[in-house]
Amino acid sequence: MNLNNTVFKIIIIAFFHTYIIKAKTVIKAITYTYYGDSYYQGLVDAFNEYSEINNLDIELQLKVLTPENSTSEVDDYGFTLDALISKKSKKYDIYIFYGAYSKKFGEHLADLNNYLSKNHINKFDNGILSGICTSLDNKLVGLPIAIDISVLYSNINLLNKYKKDIPKTWDEFLSTAKYILYQERKDNNTDLVAYNGLINENNGDVPIYEFINSYRESNSSPHPELTSKTTIEALEMLKKIKNEISSDSEFQLAEDYTMRLIYVNTNALFLRFWYVSHSPVYELSPIPGYKDGVSGSLIVANNIGINNYISEENKLAAAEIIKFMTTMDTQKKYITNKKYISAINELYDDDDVCALLNCDLIKKVQPFSFMNNNLNEFGNDAYHEKYRKYISEFLYNNKSVTEVLKKINDITRIYSISLNTDDSYLGLIVFIIFSVIMTVIMISVIFLFIKKFYISFMVLTKDLWIISLLGTLIILCSVLTLYDVTTIFKCQLRIFLITFGYVVMKVPFLYNLIVRFPEKNKISFYLEKHKYLFIFIILLFNLVLNILMTFSPSDVSEVNVLDGGNYKRCVINTILGNIFYYLILFHDGLIIIIMLILIYMEWNIKETYYDIRLLATVLFMDILSIILFNIINNIIFNDYIAYNALLSANIILFSILNHIFTYFVKIGSSFLPRNSTTSLDLMKRVMQYKNDSFNNTWSIASNTMTSENSNTATQNIRNSFINKIVEYHNQNESI
């Protein structure tokens, strides 16, 4: 019986431990470091101990990527994070990442404002929080566990030997380095390193940015604009330093060589590196500036954030971890006490901390400055690579500074044509041509009201000519949508102006072809009496299609040009959008087809002999122009100037050729010598034609139809539809 009781107790205890006692919540984190486990493992062990003591039932497991187990490239860790986050992976609950990634990955990280108190958050440097810990929508997506500060290492023994001070400006730096280097080489110290550039194919974007940063007006001033005179001066000084106290090979040496100079072989005068434990030979100071009081020192933050796709339970557990790691006590014990730098400024008034760290130095580089983490620039790994590549071309390959800065600017800049001629004269040239043509077309309207030109313009009434000219102007105005930033609205507006303008331009001629049909019919008679209703219905149909297209509008696609000018183009990505677009084209195309059929049928009518041929010529040019427009829109050009030039030329030629062949030709014909009697006879014939065609009574039309109906059977046998068209084509006078 006692044995049974014992077994029973064991089962109860096992059940209790298995199902009643709460299992630990395991939180997995991932990070990257150059220097082994660094301070991370100490923090992990400390938290797990803290969790055990306080019965939090949370266990932290950390995966640390290092050069030994992965790659020494920061970019690859960015790709790793990107792969995990873009798939909304729940493999890791916590990410420890570089502050530059806050904007890039921010939307995938939890807002720490929802999990940590304001008092806890406000202990951190506000500039760091707002600059490299927030997402695009200003969520707090990370807190800095620690920060790195770039500093100047000065060999105090050599400076004292030659009675030189630690330089505060780059001019002082260069002068001191040249002097000591010269003296040391006289003493056969030919291996002395005057300065390390740390600018090579794998690294260098931070030192470059830092050097340019040192040319600000003050420590609180923004980073100089990329193509500014200030940036040019900074880079020219950087190259001067390389040429006068260093060499290409020395400037490109990797970080491990610099670390050996810091710890082992201390035969260096000046070194640029991060604040780390170092040989007492060196004294640390802020990176010099172009003037006293300005420093180029930068910080890099190692942020800790929570995966936004994990369960709420895990988020709360992860928040406990972050809270522990970022308390002042933890930061002091595991960060500053191990000679790493915290982002809690209050610690640098602590005597214990300042006994281990150079608090005066840390305060001198405040307000902290950091690399711009704009998504299109240093928040983008590809930008880092090209940035250092192009600057290296200036430093080592003798490319001009303005050339490489333009290439860097082109990485993210979106080009478009404008009236500004800094990049191209295309915008100004196109606008001048546009303005001249627009003015000429508007002025040319006056010829409609000059008696001398009445005969030439009698093919259409004045109101129809004005409507047609208005359509030409509408099409011409679509050129303006190419200017400045390409937007969805401009893309949609361009389609509307071209397609609607084309219908406005052609509908008067379509109307005229129908009402002047060479044989009496009810349609022609009805439309002659309802001219504006006909025009309104045709235009309304096109307008409705354009309005429907706004429900699935054009999109804007960015074309990235290698070593060139990026630009944006209009594309239609949706099925519905393409359906409406092709319906609009079909509507315009149907008008052309109907007009061509009517032109063929009225081809030999004497009264409109030349007008018909000119109109046919214009329609075939229209077809070619519409085809070219769509081809240009669907080809991806590697030159924004070529793209915009071809589109502009197509639109302008389309407008001006229509105006020339349908309007200016008639003005020119009025200046040709002609017999006055003949002219009078022609006017009478045209007027007689108009009267005969349009002023018939319904009875005349009915008699005609009745006569036709009596012979229907015979005609159906004798004449097919095509034969009927050919019959109309062969007529030289209206019936």
UniProtKB/TrEMBL annotation:
Offer one Pfam family short name for this entry.
SBP_bac_8
**Ligase as UniProt keyword:** no
Compartment(s) of residence? Cell envelope
Descriptive protein name: Periplasmic binding protein-like II
- The transmembrane segments are 425-450, 462-483, 495-511, 532-551, 579-600, 612-636, 642-665
InterPro entries from the xrefs?
Bact_solute-bd_prot1, SBP
Q: Which domain of life is it from?
A: Eukaryota
Instruction: For this UniProt record, give its keywords in alphabetical order, as a comma-separated list.
Output: Membrane, Signal, Transmembrane, Transmembrane helix, Transport
Which Gene3D superfamilies is this protein grouped with? Periplasmic binding protein-like II
| Tagged with keyword Transport | yes
Q: What is its main location?
A: other
Give the residue range of the signal peptide.
none
